[in-house]
UniProtKB/TrEMBL annotation:
One Pfam family recorded for the sequence: RF3_C
Keyword line: Cytoplasm, GTP-binding, Nucleotide-binding, Protein biosynthesis
Subcellular location: Cytoplasm
Function text: Increases the formation of ribosomal termination complexes and stimulates activities of RF-1 and RF-2. It binds guanine nucleotides and has strong preference for UGA stop codons. It may interact directly with the ribosome. The stimulation of RF-1 and RF-2 is significantly reduced by GTP and GDP, but not by GMP.
PROSITE patterns linked to this entry: G_TR_1, G_TR_2
Full protein name: Peptide chain release factor 3
Species whose genome carries this gene: Dichotomicrobium thermohalophilum
Superkingdom of origin: Bacteria
Keyword Nucleotide-binding in record: yes
GO cellular component: cytosol
InterPro entries, A to Z: EF-G-like_DII, EFG_III/V, G_TR_CS, P-loop_NTPase, PrfC, RF3_C, RF3_dom_3_sf, Small_GTP-bd
């Protein structure tokens, strides 16, 4: 049995560290029956060797390949959950993964509200108007008022709110969650704070069954809040959600299993399947016969004896089969994909195939780059895969000055691969490396050492932020660049980048140079 593209849901979870992404991921996988997620990469033939290498990095570096894509089925649909590494693994790849999903779940800690990494990841979703479901986690603990959290989401993220699941009490008063769409009360037989194990079908929040199960004060408050919410927010509008303007909000507790099914059902019913993908010279629709896709992430093996990499390809059209020949459009070269990693659900009977919305891992030796388009021969290029302005900027210092050439080669190669941004000053010769997360710097120095035999050190710079410059008025741009020579660098394509020493300085420049665009992203070339 094959699963068509419109039965697929490819999504990611965005959150700040500790909000509960890992816990929620596990609960979603359990619900979908994919208990052995670690076994998702099937070892066979040549893939066996690839697997053991990758397992080794996982152990050494804590970088997880097998959990990069987690696949499970639920109610006849196939779900692909793409991992967005957080904590110390937070990197440009985390952002770029969001260009390969069709929807996202935003997990917020009920006590903390929107935090910095949530906001950054949200902004990336907004670039492509990715539909977002909000899951407010940890309602079993004392958190902020429900309306306070909803107001924050609405105001700070400029999203319309549609409450779908409401908490009946929070913290010590937590009795369960009420699914407003289904009129179901989810609660526990083990009393307050117990894990979810019971569904009570109700006629509404005034159902007498609730009076038996919920303390008077808590019920009265929830009834009042739900009424207020109904008056304050427009009803759920599936189209506004799909266009990225409205977010359905679910209160729950991942740890205690609350609102997992409500969440899955919402994705199943309303999150979009793979949509047409923007490309030049023409867009690609998922129902086309021929295979096409783009690479959104490269993972390198840290073991210096094995310089192999895995390129993660999101399939946009066609049915990919093991052993297929695909053309790398940038180089015009055909690559036979003998031993792809195909991420599979336990019960998926189509192990050798992948369709639109799926991700495959292509082993290679550094020939594939982030942003590469693959097709069955057509000259296409998928667009909308940006480079992101680095958030950590470091000067590169070489401990052995006789190896400048090797150092430059290393940085050039790693930037082309998509691992880092390399910025060169207009004045002076010291290059700057820009990354999103600290781990990227560690990976750069490890790889420079093992692959290019150069020892790099990173030094602080006076810069806090980098923005790509562009303008419709070429003269204005040239004037700006020559006036700010010491704060201008060029990226690997030769495009100018403004280096700001503080957010204040950046704002000031933006305000006083209306003709210039200061961009946080740039379309990859
Ligand atoms: P991540 O960093 O976003 O992946 O967060 P984790 O899933 O690792 O969770 C961070 C901490 O919050 C862990 O100690 C979890 O047990 C805890 N946690 C997660 N979900 C809940 C919840 O619903 N209620 C409570 N009380 N704790 C939770």
């Amino acid at each position: 049995m094959s699963i068509t593209y419109d039965q697929r849901r490819t999504f990611a979870i965005i959150s700040h560290p500790d909000a509960g992404k890992t816990t929620l991921t596990e609960k979603l996988l359990l619900q979908g029956g994919a208990i052995h997620m670690a076994g998702a990469v099937k070892a066979r033939g040549e893939a066996r060797r690839a697997r053991s290498d990758w397992m080794k990095i996982e152990q050494e570096r804590g970088i997880s390949v097998t959990s990069s894509v987690m696949t499970f089925t639920h109610n006849g649909l196939l779900f692909n959950l793409l991992d967005t590494p957080g904590h110390e693994d937070f990197s440009e790849d985390t952002y770029r993964t969001l260009t390969a999903v069709d929807s996202a779940i935003m997990v917020i800690d009920a006590a903390r509200g929107i935090e910095s990494q949530t906001r950054k990841l949200f902004e990336v979703c907004r670039l492509r108007d990715i539909p977002i479901i909000t899951y407010i986690n940890k309602v079993d603990r004392k958190g902020r008022e429900a309306f306070d959290l909803l107001d924050e989401i609405q105001e700070e993220l400029q999203l319309d709110i549609a409450p779908r699941v409401w908490p009946l009490g929070m913290g010590g008063q937590f009795h369960g969650c009420y699914d407003l769409a289904r009129n179901e009360f989810h609660t526990s037989t083990q009393g307050r704070g117990g894990p979810f194990d019971t569904v009570v079908h109700c006629s509404g929040l005034d159902d007498p069954q609730l009076e038996e199960r919920v303390d008077d004060g808590v019920l009265a408050q929830a009834q009042e809040e739900a009424e207020l919410a109904e008056a304050a927010y427009p009803p759920f509008d599936p189209q506004a959600f799909r266009e990225g303007h409205q977010t359905p909000v679910i209160f729950g507790s991942a740890l205690r299993d609350y609102s997992i099914t409500s969440l899955l059902d919402l994705i199943a019913e309303h999150a979009p399947p793979p949509r047409p993908s923007p490309a030049t010279p023409r867009d690609v629709t998922p129902d086309e016969d021929k295979v096409s896709g783009f690479v959104f992430k490269i993972q390198a093996n840290m073991d210096k004896n094995h310089r192999d990499r895995i390129a993660f390809l999101r399939i946009c059209s066609g049915r990919f089969k093991r052993g297929m020949k695909l053309r790398q459009v940038r180089t015009g070269k055909d690559i036979t994909v003998h031993s792809p990693i195909i991420f599979m659900a336990q019960d998926r009977g189509i192990a050798d195939e992948a369709g639109p919305g799926d991700v495959i891992g292509i082993p290679n030796h550094g020939t594939i780059r982030v942003g590469d388009t693959f097709t069955e021969g057509e000259k296409l290029r998928f667009t909308g895969l940006p480079a992101f302005a680095p958030e950590i900027l470091r000067r590169v210092r070489l401990t052995d000055s006789t190896r400048v050439k090797q150092m430059r080669q290393a940085l050039q190669d790693l930037s082309e691969e998509g691992l880092i941004q390399v910025l060169k000053p207009d004045i002076g010769s010291q290059w700057v490396v820009g990354v999103i997360g600290q781990l990227q710097l560690d990976v750069v120095s490890d790889r420079a050492k093992s692959e290019y035999k150069v020892a790099l050190e990173f030094e602080p710079t006076p810069y806090q932020m980098a923005r790509w410059l562009s303008s419709d008025d070429e003269r204005a741009l040239n004037t700006f660049v020559s006036k700010h020579k010491s704060a201008i660098m060029t990226d690997r394509d030769g495009d100018p980048v403004f280096m700001a020493s503080s957010p204040w300085e950046l704002n000031y420049k933006i305000e006083s140079n209306a003709a210039i665009r200061f961009s946080k992203t740039k379309e990859m070339e």
